[in-house]
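To whoever is on call:

I kicked off a structure prediction for a single chain this morning and the downstream step that reads the tokens threw a length-mismatch warning. I double-checked the sequence; it's 107 residues and nothing unusual in it as far as I can see. Pasting both halves so you can look.
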Amino acid sequence: LTDHCGNQTTCSFDVVVGYGNGTNRPDNNATVFPNPMNETFSLNWKSEQEHIFVVRDILGRVVLQRRLLPDLGVHSFFVGEWESGIYFWEVLRDGVFVQQGRITKID
């Protein structure tokens, strides 16, 4: 960089790309399947710490909320009573987003 007086300097910086507080790391990888879904879906999630799994409808209303205990792996949910449409899921730890995604329910 050169300023208006002709002085030159260099600078460098690191750009960290992540979600929320940067905790969307490979070791916090949630997988929701099948997508689209009918009456059930599963969440593949394994962590050494407790998390919260939340699903919201298109209006932002919470339609599902569950604690994810450490090292449980696959969690299955029956959602036959849900309306068809798009839902948004998120995994939180201590109220901070860790990962999020979208899932579609069809009849």
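Update from on-call: the warning came from a stale cache, not from the record. Cleared it. Sanity check on the structure: The first strand starts at residue 31 and ends at 33.
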